[in-house]
Amino acid sequence: MKVEGSCHCGAVTFQAEIDPERVRICHCSDCQTLSGTAFRVVAPTPEADFHLISGEPTLYVKTAESGARRIQAFCGACGTPLYATAAEGEARTFGIRVGALKQRGELHPKRQFWHRSRLPWLPDMPGKVISRQ
């Protein structure tokens, strides 16, 4: 599925090809903090299928609990989260932030990750729970 995305202010725009069956919810504490809310919804895509149309995202490299280094891309002007990916390596996957996509209403999560960090006050959510610590 072809998707189009942008930050809130429109400075950064992009297009990508995604598989809507791979849309997921991440409950990890890093996603909670970096999104400023209880979870994050992500649409993964191969780096080759992500195309920056305008602007240049600001990059922040965080170190996960596992020790993995992850690039967090966001708009430097308005702060909108855009995607995350591994800091090193080839054939990387970009985890596009569904909130930045025009088609977000069509993208129903199919999986949930890092469920152990799920906030206890959340209602039941869509998607199969994948056991990850």
Overall description:
This protein starts with a strand and ends with a strand. The chain has one domain: Beta Complex (Metal Binding Protein, Guanine Nucleotide Exchange Factor, Chain A), CATH 2.170.150. It is built from one helix and eleven strands, in the order βββαββββββββ. It has one helix spanning 29-35, and strands spanning 2-6, 13-17, 24-26, 40-46, 50-54, 58-63, 69-74, 81-86, 93-97, 111-113, 128-129. The radius of gyration is 14 Å and the shape is globular. With 133 residues, the chain is mainly β. An eight-stranded mixed β-sheet has the order 6-7-8-9-4-3-10-11. It has a three-stranded antiparallel β-sheet with strand order 1-2-5, with no helix packed on it.
Short key terms for the protein model shown above:
Metal Binding Protein, Guanine Nucleotide Exchange Factor, Chain A, eight-stranded mixed sheet, three-stranded antiparallel sheet, globular
